[in-house]
């Protein structure tokens, strides 16, 4: 049996936070569960007094499909899937021996009238992948509200609920979606059209060499030009129209951009919660796990696009310790970090460091 049990503790009236309980009562739990099985098997021929004696202090089932237990012992799961009302715990029962329950403050003891839908449960034992990859839940005191709602022009996260505020970035780009902001750096003349040469110069300013910059031009414009065109006819110059950049969204990605180019905070936070154990950085190995975990079936364009984008991100940031910081990755989504990197490299060249 897994020694780690998932609990959700009420932190205050407005939110909940999840904590880990490494039970020292695992053996006792199994022992009580075995005794429950014995009581169920012998219930036809055994009296209530015998069952009470057999349970070693745990009262027998009174016919209401509800089992009680000593206050300090872990709850026992009923096989009929019923929910149990404990002294300080409200167990969320399941027909598949679910070991998840909700612990509340004494003054907020939950009752049988509360439904499962009222409780946020991120993981269940019968589906181990849900334990390995847990979605993000905002902290009770977080300023990030409605994380699942896409933001049109603000790349909001729990650490940056108002997006990029440096030089009033979000306000100055309130006429663009976050995906359009991501592409703006490469539109040097601000005409809303990215030519192949614009992409080449942009990648070169970000530190990519001649070969990698040419490769980026080929990959980006060969795949992403046609969906953005204002007509059905292909463009011989392979230009990209920023106004239609949302049509370039591909599968097997993180889902941080929605289909209209907005920014979804929940999906961004899920990247780090699921694949980086909630840290504020990602390693190249974390990226590999993420690419594998986000793959959709029969989606070679999406696989290749996601691989190209995240490898380019790592090469551009090139962290000395191998850690891509969360804030830098967020800055790539709204494009603000591109200007910082380009300015830093230009300054280094001016002073002879490159």
From TrEMBL:
<feature type="region of interest" description="Disordered">
    <location>
        <begin position="23"/>
        <end position="84"/>
    </location>
</feature>
<keyword id="KW-1133">Transmembrane helix</keyword>
<feature type="transmembrane region" description="Helical">
    <location>
        <begin position="206"/>
        <end position="226"/>
    </location>
</feature>
<dbReference type="GO" id="GO:0005509">
    <property type="term" value="F:calcium ion binding"/>
</dbReference>
<keyword id="KW-0472">Membrane</keyword>
<comment type="similarity">
    <text>Belongs to the caleosin family.</text>
</comment>
<protein>
    <submittedName>
        <fullName>Caleosin-domain-containing protein</fullName>
    </submittedName>
</protein>
<dbReference type="InterPro" id="IPR007736">
    <property type="entry name" value="Caleosin-related"/>
</dbReference>
<feature type="compositionally biased region" description="Basic and acidic residues">
    <location>
        <begin position="27"/>
        <end position="38"/>
    </location>
</feature>
<keyword id="KW-0812">Transmembrane</keyword>
<dbReference type="GO" id="GO:0004497">
    <property type="term" value="F:monooxygenase activity"/>
</dbReference>
<dbReference type="Pfam" id="PF05042">
    <property type="entry name" value="Caleosin"/>
</dbReference>
């Amino acid at each position: 049996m897994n020694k780690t049990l998932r609990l959700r503790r009420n932190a205050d009236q407005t939110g909940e936070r999840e904590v880990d309980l490494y039970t020292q009562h695992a053996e006792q739990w199994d022992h009580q569960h075995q005794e429950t099985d014995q009581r169920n098997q012998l219930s036809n021929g055994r009296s209530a007094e015998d069952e009470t004696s057999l349970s070693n202090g745990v009262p027998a089932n009174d016919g209401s499909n509800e089992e009680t237990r000593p206050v300090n012992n872990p709850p026992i799961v009923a096989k009929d899937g019923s929910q149990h009302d404990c002294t300080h715990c409200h167990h969320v029962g399941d027909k598949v021996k679910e070991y998840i329950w909700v612990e509340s403050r004494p003054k907020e003891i939950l009752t049988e009238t509360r439904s499962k839908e009222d409780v946020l449960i991120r993981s269940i034992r019968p589906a181990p992948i849900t334990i390995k990859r847990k979605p993000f839940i905002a902290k009770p005191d977080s300023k990030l509200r409605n994380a699942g709602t896409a933001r049109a022009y603000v790349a909001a996260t729990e650490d940056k609920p108002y997006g990029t505020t440096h030089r009033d970035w979000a306000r100055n780009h309130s006429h663009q979606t976050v995906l359009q902001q991501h592409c703006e750096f490469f539109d040097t003349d601000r005409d809303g059209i990215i030519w192949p040469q614009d992409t080449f110069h942009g990648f070169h300013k970000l530190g990519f060499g001649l070969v990698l910059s040419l490769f980026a031009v080929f990959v980006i414009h060969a795949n992403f030009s046609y969906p953005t065109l204002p007509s059905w006819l292909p463009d011989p110059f392979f230009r990209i129209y920023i106004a239609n950049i949302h049509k370039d969204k591909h599968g097997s990605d993180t889902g941080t951009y929605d289909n209209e180019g907005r920014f979804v905070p929940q999906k961004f936070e899920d990247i780090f919660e699921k694949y980086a154990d909630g840290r504020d950085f990602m390693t190249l190995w974390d990226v590999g796990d993420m690419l594998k975990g986000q793959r959709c079936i029969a989606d070679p364009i999406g696989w290749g696009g996601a691989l190209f984008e995240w490898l380019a991100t790592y090469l551009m940031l090139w962290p000395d310790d191998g850690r891509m910081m969360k804030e830098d990755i967020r800055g790539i989504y709204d494009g603000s970090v591109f200007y910082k990197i380009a300015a830093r490299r230009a300054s280094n060249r001016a002073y002879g460091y490159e």
